[in-house]
Amino acid sequence: MSYQKIKGTQDFFGIEKQKFAFIEQTAKNVSKRWGFFEMDTPIFEATELFNRSVGDETDIVKKEMYTFLDKGDRSITLRPEGTASVTRAVVENKLYASTNPLKLSYFGPMFRYERPQAGRLRQFTQFGVEVFGVESANLDADLIYMAVETFREMGIKSMTVKINTLGDDRSKEAYQEALRVYFSTKVGSMCKDCQERIVKNPLRILDCKIDAKGEEIANAPKMSDYLSFESKAYLKKIVDLLEQLDVNVEVDQTLVRGLDYYTSTVFEIIVESESPGMKDLVLCGGGRYNGLSKDLGGPELKAIGYAFGVERVMIALDEKNTWNDFNASTDFAILAMDDESKTESIKLANLLRKCGKTVELDYVNTTLKPQFKLSERINAKTVLLIGEEERRNRTITWKGKNIVENSNNLPQEMFRNDQQTISMEQFFKRLRIYTRTKRWMEKNPKAYANYLLMRKE
Ligand code: HAM
């Protein structure tokens, strides 16, 4: 019996896992510079939370949720996104009372039962940020800029921010009514879901994935005709600011986003795909959701956020081939020529690890060939050899990158592939950890640093 991973899920290992970690780390570093604090919420929540926030009429709730009854007959759903859970946590724990604005970030797996294809998975990973307590075009622009800067720092140089506004409550209502009137004459050509949406939530028709309604959508009433002066001015200010920050920004009046909680500003960040037949990649999506806290039983809290999919960013970076060099390298491989030297090599390895060096050794062999093979496999910068002679003379044999003094007496790293036997004292001086190891010795005379540096026969 053999097992395979579930359709739409991925294993990450080797270089792919390093790429994944690079994206995670870069996003976390950038968001820290913008003053965000990390938080975690559970991976599953009460189903009702998503029905209420993401919206009953959305594709996510209607078709894509992993929902099940637990043993206590409660309806549970694996989170399809993070905003609902974060807002639930902010309200439940009254986090809004402590800081204003409250800036939170999260990272983790999300689940949607979608048709798997490149960049569309059933389990994927989002990095998301949410800001509570402030409504200002300055904040919206700065947050969008942070997303752009995150992708730039990862190596994506060219991208487009598509932006739109759903207006304030009154504009949104007037627009929904205009869509109702417009689409009610086209019921015959619509999928079953959209026929229901005409009554319940006509905005959702604009991002239906089933019908090819290109022309019908292009000719549909435009949000801009129903926007208040304030809503238009708010959007214009964000666009102006982003342009001043050197961001390629485009107002797209058909952009409505597939989640119901959005109010006013909505945006997506797109990279053009260079592979023939591949659609442009939507890396990131977000917007304002000023009514969600209240809908979930909390106070009225202005809010905005975005999330991006790590796996999609990986595709974009693979296409552009702008990855860092992920060839892992190890600082030291220690080779031991007999059993007693093996013991010494373990002590030395752990001393070097204490000093922040990456060290690998062979736990079994005392012949050189397999040990050299290991050092090649792990791409060791330096190979250290310990044998009977080295033990007797308190020396070590060094092979590989060498630190030499140049004419200005400044230490310099040079690659010399020759072999050199040096005293342990010289060895620690060369690594610039002599003082540190001496300090340990003084504090703890029994430490193996003592053994290696001072042992008298
Ligand atoms: P979303 O547009 O549904 O928004 O998802 C955000 C990002 O998650 C997408 O742009 C994409 O990169 C990634 N993503 C979504 N679905 C998949 C999938 N099936 N496979 C791979 N990647 C996927 C949200 O989730 C909102 N919560 C964003 C937000 C935060 N709005 C306000 N705050």
Describe this entry's structure for a reader:
There is one protein chain. This protein is α+β, with helices and mostly antiparallel strands and 457 residues long. Helix content is 39%, strand content 23%. Residues 402-407 and 409-416 have low confidence and may be disordered. α1 packs across α11, α5 runs parallel beside α9 and α16 (434-443) packs across α17. It is built from 17 helices and 16 strands. The radius of gyration is 30 Å and the shape is elongated. Bound molecules: histidyl-adenosine monophosphate (HAM).
Question: In a nutshell, what does this entry contain?
Answer:
Helix content is 39%, strand content 23%.
From the structure above, extract its key features:
457 residues; alpha+beta; BirA Bifunctional Protein, domain 2; Rossmann fold; 2 domains; eight-stranded mixed beta sheet; five-stranded mixed beta sheet; 17 helices; 16 strands; 23% strand; elongated; binds histidyl-adenosine monophosphate
Q: How many strand segments?
A: 16
Largest sheet features: 8 strands, mixed
In whole angstroms, the N-to-C terminal distance is 60 Å
**Low-confidence stretches at least 5 residues in length (pLDDT < 50)?**
402-407, 409-416
Q: Any idea what the radius of gyration is?
A: 30 Å
For the record, what is the CATH homologous superfamily label of the largest domain? Bira Bifunctional Protein, Domain 2
Work out the strand percent: 15-25%
Which cofactor or ligand species appear? Answer: histidyl-adenosine monophosphate
Globular, elongated, flat, extended or rod-shaped: what is the shape?
A: elongated
**Average pLDDT level:** 90
The DSSP helix count reads: 17
Secondary structure category: alpha+beta
Number of domains: 2
Proper CATH architecture of the largest domain: 2-Layer Sandwich
Helix content: 25-40%
CATH domain topology of the largest domain: BirA Bifunctional Protein, domain 2
Oligomer: single chain
Q: According to CATH, what is the class of the largest domain?
A: Alpha Beta
Strand line-up of the largest beta sheet: 1-5-6-11-10-9-7-8
